[in-house]
């Protein structure tokens, strides 16, 4: 019998842990609150009198988020993820409530300044908050349950994002910016109560890094020296870069270039969303797969998803474009659950926060760069050739990572 397959927990076993169920509620509400706020952010930014100001508002949260991620991961490793979350969550709630006030009440020249300041603060807090949220399950789950847990989290987050975005749009239309922001604050108030209860019911000894011997660089060094993580994180960075470029730039520009209406872009975006939700959900059926098999599925999915972008460039009709967008979503769905799941299972607990900060930078942190690259290349080649060229580069990069993981993952097993 394969000992590894017998020891990795199933989804039902993970969900049977009371602390994980409580954490999952926190995680879902936090993701939904983020989606609620992002809807209002986009609306407020689009109302600026200049597209330059719109870009400033949208970037104001992303820049500090990336800048503080590494130190946020170090904080989670030094003091414990639960403690960090109990500090960041009330700050997030207060900032969302402040956003509700300033986005509607401040007028004139000062409005942009205040909106930028609050958005910057939300992004900075997120830099500390996100690595702690990724690390926290390691404080009450054994290694055998952590990879499965991340699959459950990812599936739940897809529905939470959709629900939050839908609710945010409805509240924005019926109650304005303040209604959606207040709803986000209310969701986080519930998470505070749950985090307080979790603090009183520890289930295992928490391993933290020694303050004198730990640094941000240790996480980066660990990834660079790891025979598998350096390739899986590169894969995640590449596929997130190309998929963000496809969704935010290539698909809408292709629709406009082809003379299609906005519904064509909406259909492609929706197909991608359905695909990624199905692809993520399918990973819950793969908890018994070997570690090597999971790694190859994750990197292989990224390769196929990148290749689908080539298909978008070659597509000559709306139906083909929508089909390629669906395939792109379906095949990228298993990437994060499989590859980030491996990281959570394999990385020492004293380094988890810092390693996940590297993953966060490689995934969400560089996504805006994809749209920028697309715009520059499209100006020279046209949007269809841009999709083909960028898709081919991403496919080749992911294929190279696949070969490296294939070679380096022989004999890799779930650590006890």
Automatic annotation (TrEMBL):
> Which spans are transmembrane here?
20-45, 51-74, 95-128, 176-195, 228-251, 263-282, 294-314, 320-343, 355-383, 389-406
| InterPro entries per record | MFS (IPR011701), MFS_dom (IPR020846), MFS_trans_sf (IPR036259)
Q: What keywords are annotated for this sequence in UniProt?
A: Cell membrane, Membrane, Transmembrane, Transmembrane helix
Q: Give the location in the cell.
A: Cell membrane
The answer to whether keyword Lyase applies is no
Question: What membrane topology term does the record carry?
Answer: Multi-pass membrane protein
Name a GO molecular-function annotation: transmembrane transporter activity
Record protein name field: MFS transporter
Name the source organism: Flexivirga aerilata
Biological classification of the source: Bacteria, Bacillati, Actinomycetota, Actinomycetes, Micrococcales
């Amino acid at each position: 019998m394969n000992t590894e397959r017998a020891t990795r927990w199933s989804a039902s076993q993970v969900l049977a842990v009371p602390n994980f169920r409580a954490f999952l509620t926190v995680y879902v509400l936090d993701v939904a609150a983020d989606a609620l706020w992002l809807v209002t952010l986009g609306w407020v930014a689009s109302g600026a009198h200049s597209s330059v100001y719109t870009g400033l508002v949208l970037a104001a949260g992303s820049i500090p988020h990336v800048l503080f991620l590494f130190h946020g991961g170090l904080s989670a490793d030094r003091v414990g993820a639960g403690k960090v979350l109990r500090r960041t969550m009330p700050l997030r709630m207060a900032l969302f409530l402040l956003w509700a006030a300033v986005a509607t009440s401040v007028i004139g020249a000062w409005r942009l300044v205040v909106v930028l300041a609050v958005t910057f603060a939300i992004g900075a807090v997120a830099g500390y908050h996100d690595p702690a949220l990724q690390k926290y399950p390691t404080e009450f789950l054994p290694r055998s349950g952590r990879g499965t847990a991340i699959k459950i989290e990812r599936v739940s987050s897809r529905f939470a994002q959709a629900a939050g975005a839908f609710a945010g749009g409805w509240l924005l239309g019926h109650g304005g910016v303040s209604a959606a922001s207040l709803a986000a604050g209310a969701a986080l108030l519930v998470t505070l109560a749950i985090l307080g209860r979790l603090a009183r019911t520890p289930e295992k000894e928490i391993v933290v890094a020694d303050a004198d011997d730990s640094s941000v660089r240790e996480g980066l060094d660990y990834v660079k020296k790891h025979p598998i993580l350096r390739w899986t994180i590169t894969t995640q960075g590449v596929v997130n870069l190309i998929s963000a470029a496809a969704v935010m730039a290539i698909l809408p520009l292709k629709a406009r270039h082809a003379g299609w209406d906005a519904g064509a872009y909406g259909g492609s975006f929706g197909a991608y969303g359905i695909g990624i939700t199905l692809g993520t959900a399918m990973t819950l059926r793969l908890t018994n797969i070997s570690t090597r098999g999971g790694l190859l599925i994750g990197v292989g999915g990224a390769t196929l998803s990148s290749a689908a972008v080539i298909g978008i460039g070659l597509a000559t009709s709306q139906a083909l474009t929508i089909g390629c967008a669906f395939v792109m979503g379906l095949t990228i769905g298993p990437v994060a659950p499989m590859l980030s799941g491996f990281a959570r299972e394999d990385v020492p607990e004293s380094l988890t926060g810092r390693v996940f900060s590297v993953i966060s930078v490689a995934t969400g942190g560089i996504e805006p760069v994809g749209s920028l690259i697309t715009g520059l290349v499209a100006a020279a080649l046209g949007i269809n050739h841009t999709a083909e060229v960028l898709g081919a580069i991403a496919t080749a990069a992911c294929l190279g990572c696949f070969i490296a993981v294939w070679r380096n993952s022989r004999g890799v097993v779930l650590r006890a």
